[in-house]
Design goal:
3-stranded antiparallel sheet; alpha+beta; 6-stranded mixed sheet; PH-domain like
């Protein structure tokens, strides 16, 4: 799971617990102006193939975490529960997309959308 916070014009994503180990990453910071959009998506994390992991962990139905390459995109994943998935689309960043599980997807989407609107 990831905790999202905002400060100084950046979105901070803190990978929690053992997911740091599975994702090979503990924290991401993205300038708000590099976010194209954000939305909740309960279907994107379903299914078994999500690209080539490099480095990452993928156990279908259990966890998908780390860096994956799919359809020419570099995507960061950290999802256990597809029902709590948020997708953040980026530009001018290392990743093209962040697909993460958060405690409250609606609140996370509102928080990031408000920051994007105010940039």
């Amino acid at each position: 799971m990831v905790e999202i916070s905002l400060s100084e014009g950046k979105v901070h994503l803190e990978v929690k617990g053992l997911d740091k180990l599975w994702a090979f990453k503990g924290r991401l910071e993205i300038p708000v102006e590099h976010i194209r959009g954000v939305h909740a998506d309960t279907s994107i994390a379903r299914g078994w193939y999500k690209g080539i992991k490099a480095p990452g962990t993928s156990i279908p139905g259990v966890i998908r975490a780390g860096t994956f390459y799919q359809n020419g995109k570099r995507i960061f994943w950290d999802v256990h529960d597809p029902e709590k998935t948020v997708v953040i689309d980026l530009h001018d960043e290392r990743y093209d997309q962040l697909i993460v599980e958060v405690a409250n997807p609606g609140a996370a989407v509102d928080q990031i959308s408000t920051a994007i609107a105010g940039k």
